Amino acid sequence: MPSAPPAPRRSAVSQSADELIVLLDEDWNSVGSAPKDQSHHQETPLHLAFTAYAFDEERHFLLTRRALTKSTWPGVWTNSFCGHPLPGESLERAVRRRLTAELGTTAERMDPVLGSVRYRAVMDNGIVENEVGPAVRVCLAQPPDPSPEEIDALRWIPWERVLWEIDNGKTTLSPWSLLTIERLRSLGPDPWAWPVASAHNLPPPLRCPA
Q1: For position 209, what pLDDT does the model report?
Q2: Cβ–Cβ < 8 Å for 24, 48
Q3: Which of 84, 99, 179, 188 is the most exposed place for a label (fewest CB within 10 A)?
C-alpha cells in the first residue's frame, strides 16, 4: 500500500473494559456473551461482528490503517471500520456507535449489502479472529476525525483502484477485507448500485434485536 499522510488526531475514545460480544453456534444463533477484551486469543470463539465500507459520492472508498497498539492486526490496512454488536443491539445502532468511536463522525446513510460474511484468520502469534456478520455500505455525514486508539492513518481511494491493487499484488489488506471485497466485487462495479441485503440474510441475532 502506498504511504499515506498521518490521520488527523483527536482525543482517544476510551473503550469499556467490560464491553460484551455475542457468542454464536455454528448455525449463527446466539449462545451467550463474553467480555470483548478477554475473547480474542488462540481459541477465539465464533462471535457476531460487522464490517463497514464507507464511500463518497464519487465512489472513493475509505481505507484505514489499524492503530499500532491494536492487539489484532496492528498497523494493517483494512476496511473503513469494524465492530461487534452488543447483546440485543440493532445493526444500525452498532454501526453508528462504532463509527463515532473510530472515525468521530456520523452516517448520512447506511445499508447492509452482504447479509453475512464468515471468516477465521490467524495471526503469526497465534491469535485468532473468528467472526460472522454483515458488510455495511456507509455514506459519512461529515469528514472523519479518527481516534488514535483505533486508526493510525486513512486514505480515500477510487474503488476501481482498490480492486486493481488487489489484482496486481500492490496492496496488503486484512484477511477479512480481502475476503469481503471479493464478494462485494460480485455485486457490480458501482458501490452505490449494490442491492440492499434482505434482513433474512443477516445472522439471527440481528434480524429482530430487542
Answers
A1: 55
A2: yes
A3: 188
Q: Which CATH architecture has domain 20-207?
A: Alpha-Beta Complex (3.90)
Nearest 5°: phi and psi at 143?
-60, 150
The per-residue pLDDT for 5 is 46
- Residue 2's pLDDT band, with cuts at 50, 70 and 90, is very low
The C-alpha atoms of residue 207 and residue 158 are separated, in whole angstroms, by: 32
> What residue type is 166 in one-letter code?
I
Determine phi and psi for 121, rounding to 5 degrees: -135, 150
Which set of grid coordinates corresponds to residue 184? Answer: 462485494
pLDDT: which is higher, 82 or 7 = 82
* Catalytic residue annotation: 82, 131
pLDDT recorded at residue 42: 77
Looking at this protein, which amino acid is placed at residue 129? E
What's the CA gap between 77 and 127, in Å, rounded?
Answer: 18
Question: How many other CB atoms are found less than 10 A from the CB of residue 180?
Answer: 22
Instruction: Please report the DSSP string for 46-84 in residue order.
Output: PEE-EEEEEB-TT-EEEEEEE-TT-SSSTT-EESSEEE-
Bridge-based pairing of strands 47-48 and 107-122 is unpaired
